[in-house]
Every structure is written in structure tokens, then in C-alpha cells.
Amino acid sequence: MSAHLVMLGPPGAGKGTQAARLANHLGIPAISTGDIFRTHVAEHTGLGVIARRYMEAGEYVPDQITNAMVRDRLARKDALEGFILDGYPRTLEQVEALDGMLKDQDRGLDAVIELVANHDEVVERMLKRAAVQGRMDDTEVVIRRRLEVYAEQTEPLTRVYGERGLLVQVDGMGSVDEVTEHMLAALAE
Ligand code: AMP
């Protein structure tokens, strides 16, 4: 299958891990907007200085900035055969922007995978991750805010993509291997 995929799911659901595994399996890049922002922050670029303010508070970086960054990334050669977007789109405005970018390139999405996860469990997972990775946005207050922002701004996307017949829901709560297996099985259906 051609693979133009989006990975949705609350923070802590394992999107990054599963996107990387799926990308490896399909031979296409996983594109994580969170990772790109973190690289900018680490390198103190102009974009990084702006993004950091939002990330530290658990808020979304403004759509215009995020959309421009994704547009550049999707135009790169390695993304021409397909991609898995991990953490983008996250707002309805980003959905529209992505539609426009793909239309300009004469392509469209094939599927949107939603990793379905229990809120209490993801908070626990993220606190564990914080202890290991020390991410700047993994404190409990910020984690709770990120979940709220997800519910308000990103959860509505599941309805939009559901109506387009693109949504593939996968239980994100098993072991890493189990979730990968379920995801591959669901995509093969
Ligand atoms: P993530 O690693 O995907 O959880 O993203 C970490 C943080 O980066 C988010 O909490 C946001 O502040 C920012 N971010 C990542 N992707 C987006 C996006 N699509 N739109 C706005 N902000 C984003």
C-alpha cells in the first residue's frame, strides 16, 4: 500500500515508539513535530526560542509556525514516497493546512491511526519517562495540561478523520510489541 499516515493519540500513548517501528517496517520516514521542535530548542534557533515557551507550558506551538515547518519537511525527498506524521496535525487548522499541502503535491492520506489510551495510565507512563529522559514538559502539572489541550484541540480530529473513513483505532495499552502487532493487523484489514 502507499503509506501516507498520521498517528494520533494523547501524550504518553506511545505514538513516537510506534511511529518509529511502523516507519521502519514500511521503509518510510517517521516525522515527529515534537522531535523537530526539541532539536530547534536544543540548538537555540529562533524557532526553538519561540517553541520552547509553548512547550514548557504544555501548550501548542502556533499553527502558522508548525504548518510552515511541516510544509518544508514534507517537501524533502525522503518523504515523497510516504511518511508517518507523529504528532501532526493536532488542530483543525492543521488538518486543513495538511490537506492543502498534500493536494499541492497531488497526494492524500491513506489512514489515520489513533492510539487509544487511558488517561491515568498515560500520566503514569509520562512520569516514568520524565524520570528517565528528563524532558522539560514532563512535570505532572504540565502533563495534565497537555492532556487537557489534547482533549480540547486534538480529540475532535478523530471525528473528522472518522467521517472521511480514514480512522483506524488501535488499543495503545498493551506491551510495545502487542501494540505494534495490533496496529499492523488493523492496517492490513
Ligand atoms: P510531542 O513530542 O509530540 O508530545 O510534542 C511536544 C510538544 O511540542 C507539544 O506539547 C507542543 O508544545 C509541541 N508540538 C508538537 N507537535 C505540535 C503540533 N502539531 N502543533 C503544535 N504544537 C506541537
Description:
Helices cover 58% and strands 13% of the residues. With 189 residues, the chain is of the alpha/beta class. The chain has a single domain (3-188), classed as 3-Layer(aba) Sandwich (Rossmann fold). Strands 2-3-1-4-5 form a 5-stranded parallel beta sheet, sandwiched between helices. It is globular. It binds adenosine monophosphate. Adenosine monophosphate is lined by residues 11, 33-34, 37, 54-55, 58, 60-61, 66, 87-88, 90, 94, 137, 146.
Jot down its keywords.
single chain, 189 residues, alpha/beta, Rossmann fold, five-stranded parallel β-sheet, 9 helices, 58% helix, binds adenosine monophosphate
Topology (elements, then pairings):
Elements: E1 3-8, H1 15-26, E2 30-32, H2 33-42, H3 46-57, H4 63-74, E3 82-86, H5 92-104, E4 111-116, H6 119-133, H7 140-154, H8 156-163, E5 167-171, H9 176-188
Parallel strand pairs: 1-3, 1-4, 2-3, 4-5
Helix pairs in contact: 1-9, 2-3, 4-5, 6-7
Number of strands: 5
* Mean pLDDT across residues: 93
CATH architectural grouping: 3-Layer(aba) Sandwich
Structural class: alpha/beta
> In order across it, which strands form the biggest sheet?
2-3-1-4-5
Share in helix: 55-70%
Percent of residues in beta strands?
A: 5-15%
Number of domains: 1
CATH homologous superfamily grouping:
P-loop containing nucleotide triphosphate hydrolases
Present as ligands are: adenosine monophosphate
What is the name of the CATH topology? Rossmann fold
Radius of gyration: 16 Å
DSSP summary: helix tally: 9
Order of helices and strands: EHEHHHEHEHHHEH
Overall geometry comes to globular
